[in-house]
Amino acid sequence: MSALPPYASTGQRAWYYSFRVICGLIFFFLIAPIVVIIPLSFNAQDFFTFTPEMLRLDPEGFSLKHYRNFFGDESWQTSMWNSLKIAPMATIVSVTFGTLAAIGLSQPHVPFRRAIMAILISPMIVPLIISAAGMYFFYSRIGLQGTYMGVVLAHAALGIPFVIITVTATLVGFDRSLTRAAANMGADPVTTFFRIQMPLIMPGVISGGLFAFITSFDEVVVVLFVGSAGQRTLPWQMFTGLREQISPTILAVATILVAISIMLLATVEMLRRRSERLRGMSPS
Amino acid sequence: MADASNVDAFVEFERVQKSYDGENLVVKDLNLTMPKGEFLTMLGPSGSGKTTCLMMLAGFETATHGDIRLDGVSINNIPPHKRGIGMVFQNYALFPHMTIAENLSFPLEVRKMGKSEREEKVKRALDMVEMGAFGGRRPSQLSGGQQQRIALARALVFEPELVLMDEPLGALDKQLREKMQFEITHLAHRLGITVVYVTHDQTEALTMSDRVAVFDDGRIQQIAPPDQLYESPENSFVAQFIGENNTLEGTVKEINNGVALVQLDDGELIDCKPVNVSRPGERTRVSIRPERVEYNKERLQEGVHTLKAEVLEFIYMGDIFRTRLRVAGNDEFIIKTRNAPDQTRLQPGQQIEIGWLPEDCRALDA
Questions:
Q1: What fold characterizes domain B244-364?
Q2: Contact B111/A186, CB-based, under 8 Å?
Q3: What rounded mean pLDDT belongs to chain B?
């Protein structure tokens, strides 16, 4: 929204300023709950409140004890490693199958493309608790319930829709004559895929992969159903922590997760811009 | 239809048909033989089947029926990447994530060529299109004309014997297009490659080709060298499509000694060369090129039939004058005259007599 033109009427002026206020409120509504946990995680007390010392900005009111607790406590550490073992694996599976599905479904000659696409995307739309219950019964039958592989597959199923959507979006702008040109120059379909198509749809693959990673990393419902004690992930640990002992350690973990998310997003965005600049496209 | 003998046939289409939906034929019974080293242009309006033919040759479409042979070998069952045919695409299809040198190196890499040999060939190909200094750039950093040259170099770098070009100059401005037309023809003849060139621009077809195949409605209407195509069109579609053309409609009165006497619809008589009319009473469409019409009485041949004409419009075009006349009820009769010192400029409203040599006036199908 550009500056107000000199001929703006009173109504337009009123809207001009109220629009800004509304935007600010929405922003506040979205960000405040996340921002508020950050100072709280440095609380010197074992409570979820701002102590008078903290409000006075007295150094006595702040401490890193919750962070020490997180890194020192064995159950927190186990759950972190579980998350770090499950999320990347689930991401790799989602990216592989999601990309293949998107490429397949972008071919105009595939029958029932829309129906297949809708089915593949359904985990995003169906309430998570329903997917989770379904997976629980299905995985129990085939012996995947309570296994590492089971959790990875369940998370991959949740991540695939993101990959399909982002990769399909990049494929819309993909020039089919490039693959024809490659074939014409003697490249077989596999070479063409890895040398021509893959590098060009990479931004979509990366964003999709990022979404898939985050989905797995902060997923709690499905892992409660499909996992067992051996697959206790960070969100699971936080969830039980909230129920059983309300410790600000959860806030420390939350802060760390927020920091990781921001770093991941920033890195990926930078990589994406770089690759687009190299290809001579404007960063969007 | 093809005039090359089968002995030196390099590219052959034999009774080729193509249908996308199983009902309508886009290409109907195509027969075409090309000798090695020929520059053949497929010319036609959009939807005439010319691009489909090119795609079948490249292997991106399969023929519904018939046989396509390259150097005597049927290529119907050979996938595109094993055909070894170079191609320049309409939008160039340069790989945006690779540099120019990497783009050119790609076809050599997939052929498992050694690094030094690759570099050598890439350099030679870039020098050939005068783009030697641009190897490190990316396609998006080049202008349209430069991208066009790179696309050409990339299609030639692996030394294919047959190169296909699908309207490669369509996106360039007029001057650049004319320059590239000459460069492509010179390059093709110098390297001795066989070229199949697709365009809808008839000037391009005439200036570049050894032979032109005019496509319409899925068939080759005529295949001939440019001069024959322009001066001796075999049917009214070709006459209309190639160059500017005046048509008059009438009925054949008699045919004698290779000259047809045609009575125009307003009753006037003219002499024509019968092309695809054979007997008196047949309807015909008579075709005369604007530059072959003469109105200067002294230059008209003795005894030829002349027609009365009224000048409607005089257009000064620099090198030529373009005059619109009303002739035998046709308001769109155009004549072109050279802007020479002794040339008279006709005035609108002026009544003149026009005539032509009987062999320049072709009686075609109605």
A1: OB fold (Dihydrolipoamide Acetyltransferase, E2P) (2.40.50)
A2: yes
A3: 88
Give mean pLDDT, residues B234-258.
88
Indicate the domain borders of chain B: 9-236, 244-364
Report which of A186, A222, A207 is spatially closest to residue A86, judged by C-alpha positions. Answer: A222
Average pLDDT on B133-151 reads 90
- ipTM of the prediction greater than 0.85, yes or no: no
Mutation target among A184, A197, A271 for the B interface, most CBs of B within 10 A: A184
What is the reported pLDDT for B7? 55
CATH value at residue A247: 1.10.3720.10
Closest CA to B220 of B8, B4, B15, B7: B15
What is the total count of domains within chain A?
Answer: 3
pLDDT of residue A283: 37
Strand partners, A122: none
**Is residue A118 located within the same domain as residue A142?**
yes
H/E stretch holding B216 reads strand B211-216
**Full residue range of the structural domain in which residue A20 is found:** 1-33
Query: Is B82–A281 a contact, with Cβ atoms under 8 angstroms apart?
Result: no
User: Does this model's pTM top 0.90?
Assistant: no
- Give chain B positions within 8 Å (CB) of A199: 97
**Domain B9-236 sits in CATH 3.40.50.970:** no
pLDDT band at A130 (very low <50, low <70, confident <90, very high): very high
> If you average pLDDT over every residue of chain A, what do you get?
87
Give, to the nearest 10 degrees, the angle between helix A198-217 and helix A249-278.
Answer: 170
A128 in the same domain as A52:
no
Task: Give the mean model confidence (pLDDT) for residues B250-266.
Answer: 87
Q: What is the mean pLDDT of residues A233-240?
A: 88
Which residue in the set A177, A189, A280 is minimally distant from B96, CB to CB?
A: A280
Task: Measure the N-to-C terminal CA separation of chain A; round to a whole number of Å.
Answer: 19
Same domain, A197 and A227: yes
Contact A135, A221 (CB under 8 A): no
Q: Are A174 and A135 in the same domain?
A: yes
Chain A residue closest to B160 (CA)?
A: A185
Nearest CA in chain B to A197: B95
Give the dihedral sign, CA B73/B77/B83/B88: positive
